Amino acid sequence: MENSKRSAKYIIVGAGLSGLTTANILSDQGETDIIILEGRNRVGGRIHTNKAIDLGATWFQDHHSHVNRLLETHNIQKFEQFNQGQSVLVYNTMAPAHYFESPQEAPAAYRVAGGSIAVIDRLSIAFKDNIKINTKVLLLKESTSGITLQTSDGDYHAQKVVVTIPPKLATTIDYEPALPDTLISAMKGTHTWMSNAIKVGLLFKAPFWRKNKHSGTVIGQVGPVIELYDHCNHENSIFALMGFVNEGLRDVSDADRKERILSYLEKYLGPEIRQHIAYMEKDWSKDRFTACENLKSVYMSPQYGNRLFEAFHMNGKLLFSGTETSPMYGGYLDGAIYSGQRAAKLLLDQVLA
Ligand SMILES: Cc1cc2nc3c(=O)[nH]c(=O)nc-3n(C[C@H](O)[C@H](O)[C@H](O)COP(=O)(O)OP(=O)(O)OC[C@H]3O[C@@H](n4cnc5c(N)ncnc54)[C@H](O)[C@@H]3O)c2cc1C
């Protein structure tokens, strides 16, 4: 249950992976006076699992050391992405599809047992009374004693504030005094990773594709679904497919998009695709807690981790964090954890100074 606390030594803006990482490290080091302000009606940010389907972040690999270490620390299991059987590559709408088997020696992509949200659930436990959801931060105003945060739910006050909102979106907050122009322009120029993605998820009573010796993988930039994968859960009790929708279908009607997706997948996976027991989509570009209105589609991972994000602002009281500020695997889960750890370290260094 939330409490009525409105002032804390630290306020973290955003209850995503980065913000929750910072909160946990600070608290492990005895800095427990923390409030986390979250604009959405849920925690997790770009980690969002609905009915066991990861509509946001899903995969990581062996080289994502921060993710692997976090899972080990909290005893959360990982498992390999299922890829056994025939996969389909659709490279040309006029040519027949190409069928292939994934090389078993390819580096494994892992998923989190229980869905990616299991990580967020674990990191939120200690803060359940101090995470204020439905609290959108609108203005940060510096005073001699700290920073006052005007929000959709009244004012909060902190000595130190960490803003973990994607940098581009963080420019929609007002700052008094204004932030340096160089910083604002770096923030505006930082693409929010995956803010243009549309995901689709389908649940079934049984994994019919596995029975048909199909991996569930369908890849092809030319179709309504550009990537699709098996998304059954770790226990093999929930059967699902999940993938990315072609952005060209963003502005068609919901019914039209769904029909185009189903008839495309029917072609490669068979008529059983229509026997789904649940169908869901998530267009992140329409989510104003991730994406700005002036959307720009970016497909290659941009350069992240501008060094301007390492500095404190408002006289040592304000820090920016979040995956896009990370020089390591910026945009990814690993970068979110890295940035969260860095923010905590910078704040703890101030305590010791
Ligand atoms: C569709 C999709 C697929 C992805 N797939 C992968 C993947 O497979 N592997 C991988 O490594 N990464 C993936 N990612 C990226 C991964 O999700 C992010 O790197 C990570 O979750 C970012 O965490 P964060 O805490 O930095 O930011 P966020 O999760 O964006 O957290 C920021 C938080 O701030 C909140 N907020 C925003 N504005 C305000 C405001 N004004 N006031 C208060 N709160 C506010 C938001 O609601 C959010 O909770 C994917 C992302 C998406 C969207």
Write the layout of secondary structure elements.
Elements: E1 7-13, H1 17-28, E2 34-37, E3 49-50, E4 53-54, H2 65-73, E5 78-80, E6 86-89, E7 98-101, E8 110-112, H3 117-124, E9 131-132, E10 137-143, E11 146-151, E12 154-163, H4 167-170, E13 174-176, H5 181-188, E14 198-204, H6 208-211, E15 214-219, E16 225-230, E17 239-245, H7 254-269, E18 278-283, E19 318-320, H8 333-352
Parallel strand pairs: 1-2, 1-12, 2-9, 6-15, 10-13, 12-19
Antiparallel strand pairs: 3-4, 5-8, 6-7, 10-11, 11-12, 14-17, 14-18, 15-16, 16-17
The structure holds flavin-adenine dinucleotide.
Flavin-adenine dinucleotide is lined by residues 13-19, 37-40, 45-47, 56-60, 136-137, 164-166, 169, 173, 193-194, 197, 199, 284, 289-290, 322-323, 331-333, 335-336.
Protein architecture, described:
It is a single chain. α1 runs parallel beside α8 and α2 crosses α8. The protein is built from eight helices and 19 strands. The longest helix has 20 residues. It has two domains: 181 residues, FAD/NAD(P)-binding domain (3-Layer(bba) Sandwich), CATH 3.50.50.60; 124 residues, Polyamine Oxidase, Chain A, domain 2 (Alpha-Beta Complex), CATH 3.90.660.10. It is α/β, with parallel strands linked by helices and 353 residues long. The model has no long low-confidence stretch (mean pLDDT 95). The strands form four sheets. Strands 1, 2, 9, 10, 11, 12, 13 and 19 form an eight-stranded mixed beta sheet that branches. Strands 7-6-15-16-17-14-18 form a seven-stranded mixed beta sheet. The structure holds flavin-adenine dinucleotide (FAD). The site of flavin-adenine dinucleotide has 40 residues, from α1 and α8.
